[in-house]
Amino acid sequence: MLQVSNRLNDHFSNPRNVGALPGANAVGSFGTIGWGDAVKLMLQVDPQTDRIEQARFQAFGCSAAIAASSAVTEMVTGKTLDEAGGISSADIAEFLGGLPPERMYGSVIAYEALRTAIAALRGKAELESTDPDVLCDCFSVGQMMIERTIRFNRLTDPEQVTAYTKAGASCSCCFKKIEALLARVNADLVEDGLLPADQAYRVGSSPQRAIELKPRGEATAAATIFSAGHGVPAHLRAMPKPAAPKPAAPRPVAAMAGADTLTQTELIEQALAELRPHLQRDGGDCELVRIEDNTIYIRLSGNCDGCQLASVTLSGVQAKLIEKIGRPMRVVPVP
C-alpha cells in the first residue's frame, strides 16, 4: 500500500482553485487521457508587474496529479513569472510532504503545465513546448522532457525515469534509448559537479525488462479532456468501414438497431474498462448504466461519488468515449 502524506490527501480531497479561469492570459496543458493523466493550468498575470494574480486548474488522473496541480496554484499565486519559473517538480513534491516514487509523475506533469503556461505568455510556446524527438512512442514522451526531468531530479536509474515520465512503461522497446540518455545526462551532471561519479548510471547497469511480458500495441492518438465537447478532431475520427455485402433478405429494423446498439455498448464498455484502473487506484470507480442515442449514463462510486472533481472526471470519461467511438457523445451521471 502506498504511503502518502496528509497534505497530499488534503489537496486531493479538497483541491484548491479548481475550474476554468475566464481571465487567464497564460495557459499550459500537459498529458493526455491516453497517458491516464492530464493537467491544464490557467494563470491570470498582471502585464505591468508580471505577477500572478490568480491561478486555477483542471485535471484528470491519479490523486498525485490532482494534488500537485492544486499545490501549484497555491505556490505560484502572488509570485512573479520569474519566481514561478524557478519552481521545480521536486519543489512541488516537497510542498505536498513528499510523493511515493510511483506517483512522482504527478508533480512532473504539473511542473510541465506551469512551464508551458509561462512560455506561452512570453511568446515562446512553439520554442518551449515543441519536443520533436519522441523517445517513447507508446506514451509520446519527448527526449527533451525526459532529459529535463533527469537533470532536475538527479535521476540515476531507468526505473526512476519511467516512474517520473512514464517513458518505457509499456512495451520497453525504448529502454536502450532511455538508458543511453540517462547515462549521457548523468555524465554531464558528474562533470558539472552536481552528481557523485559513483552514483552515475552506466549503460548495461540494469537489465532490460522482459518485452514479452508487456503487451505491445500500436500507439493511438489520445484526446485530451480539454477538447471534449468541441467535436471530434480529424485524427480521432473512426476510419470508414468497408461496405458490408447486402444480405439475401432485408433484416427487420429492430434487429439492425439491436446489432448497432450491441457494438456501441461493447465499445463503451471497453473505454470504461481502460479508465477504471485509474479511478480504482484512488478508491473510485464507474459503471455503465444505460445508453440513449448519443447520451451515456454512468454511475460514479467510491471516492468519485461526491468528489469536488467529479465534473472533471466526467469530462475525462467523455473524452475517452469520443476517442473510442469516433463521434461526439454526452456523459451524464446518475445516482
Automatic annotation (TrEMBL):
> Which residues are Fe cation-binding?
C62
For whether the record's keyword set contains Iron, the answer is: yes
Q: Report the SUPFAM superfamilies cross-referenced here.
A: Fe-S cluster assembly (FSCA) domain-like, SufE/NifU
Q: Which residues form the signal peptide?
A: none
Q: Specify which residues bind [2Fe-2S] cluster according to the UniProt entry for this protein.
A: C136, C138, C171, C174
- Example of a GO MF term: iron ion binding
Q: Which InterPro entries match?
A: BFD-like_2Fe2S-bd_dom (IPR007419), BFD-like_2Fe2S-bd_dom_sf (IPR041854), FSCA_dom_sf (IPR034904), N_fixation_NifU (IPR016217), NIF_FeS_clus_asmbl_NifU (IPR010238), NIF_FeS_clus_asmbl_NifU_C (IPR001075), NIF_FeS_clus_asmbl_NifU_N (IPR002871)
Domain NIF system FeS cluster assembly NifU C-terminal: from-to ranges: 268-332
Start and end residues of each BFD-like [2Fe-2S]-binding domain:
135-184
Q: Which cofactor does it need?
A: [2Fe-2S] cluster; Fe cation
Name the Gene Ontology biological process terms. Answer: iron-sulfur cluster assembly
Paste the cofactor note.
Binds 1 [2Fe-2S] cluster per subunit. Binds 1 Fe cation per subunit.
Which Pfam families does this entry report, sorted A to Z?
A: Fer2_BFD (PF04324), NifU (PF01106), NifU_N (PF01592)
- Give every NIF system FeS cluster assembly NifU N-terminal domain span: 7-125
Which keywords does this chain's UniProt record carry? 2Fe-2S, Iron, Iron-sulfur, Metal-binding, Nitrogen fixation
Query: What PANTHER family does its record include?
Result: IRON-SULFUR CLUSTER ASSEMBLY ENZYME NIFU HOMOLOG (PTHR10093)
Role? May be involved in the formation or repair of [Fe-S] clusters present in iron-sulfur proteins.
**UniProt xrefs under NCBIfam families:** NifU_proper (TIGR02000)
Q: Which family does it belong to?
A: Belongs to the NifU family.
State the protein's name: Nitrogen fixation protein NifU
